[in-house]
């Protein structure tokens, strides 16, 4: 029997949240289906190679794809993240290599896969709370600059108190945007040859920016996250949401 990831208490918590959406029924096979999706998240194997203990691979994939279309896994993450502490928010972006099998989707959209000298890639833009737990994320092409999604990250915060980012977020427009929402920013300035007032940044608080790096490190333990295999951006986003949900579960049970 393959190694499972959910205890009875954690499965009951997830099942309760999924049923509360009104989009699924309490079917007994859902637990092994969910475990099959988690197994694929953890190992990154092709769907066809899923162990038969989880059921037919095609049934597991079809249910994952259906739940992705319904936004169910994103809803799970958003519900679990309601305990977020917004005193400090740390933001950053991380590039993920896109596997060659993730390209070629039969859609007009680029599915958040960009091309650069490093090859095909996707970027995860993430905001975490004071405890380093994920609040909100977005996907973009790998070559997109962090600042391109910064205002969107701020817009999706329930509260804007102190926003902490690295030099990739150095923008006077962003600082003013945060101030207009009643918050403050801790973002060091780039050195373009002019004198910089280094005392203008709270370096003590800035050191805690490692919390967002830690969040990326944790989800990249899952091979389906550290390398993108999904052709559709919504399916990869669902996998990322699932990985973040697994970070939140220990806070509940």
UniProtKB/TrEMBL annotation:
Highest taxon, organism lineage: Bacteria
Insertion element IS402-like domain sequence ranges: 6-76
Pfam (any one): DDE_Tnp_1
Parts of the chain that traverse the membrane: none
InterPro entries: IS402-like_dom, Transposase_11, Transposase_6_like
Residue ranges of every copy of the Transposase IS4-like domain listed in the record: 87-247
Name of this protein: IS5 family transposase
């Amino acid at each position: 029997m393959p190694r499972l990831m959910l205890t009875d208490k954690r499965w009951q918590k997830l099942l309760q949240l999924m049923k509360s959406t009104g989009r699924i029924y309490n079917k007994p096979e859902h637990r092994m289906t969910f475990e099959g999706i988690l197994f694929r998240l953890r190992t990154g194997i092709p769907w066809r190679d899923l162990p038969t203990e989880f059921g037919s691979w095609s049934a597991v994939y079809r249910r994952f794809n259906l739940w992705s279309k319904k936004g169910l896994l994103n809803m799970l993450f958003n519900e679990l993240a309601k305990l977020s502490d917004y005193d400090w928010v740390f933001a950053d972006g991380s590039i993920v290599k896109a596997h060659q099998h993730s390209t070629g989707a039969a859609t007009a959209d680029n599915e958040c896969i960009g091309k650069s000298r490093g090859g095909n890639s996707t970027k995860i833009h993430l905001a975490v709370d004071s405890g380093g737990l994920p609040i909100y994320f977005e996907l973009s092409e790998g070559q997109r600059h962090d600042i391109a999604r910064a205002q969107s990250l701020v817009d999706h915060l329930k509260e804007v108190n102190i926003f902490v980012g690295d030099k990739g977020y150095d923008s006077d427009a962003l600082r003013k945007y945060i101030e207009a929402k009643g918050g403050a920013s801790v973002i060091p300035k780039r050195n373009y040859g002019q004198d910089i007032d280094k005392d203008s940044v709270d370096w003590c608080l800035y050191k805690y920016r490692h919390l967002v790096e830690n969040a990326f490190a944790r989800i990249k333990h899952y091979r389906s996250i550290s390398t993108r295999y999904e052709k559709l951006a919504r399916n990869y986003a669902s996998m990322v949401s699932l990985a973040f949900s697994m970070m939140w579960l220990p806070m509940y049970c």
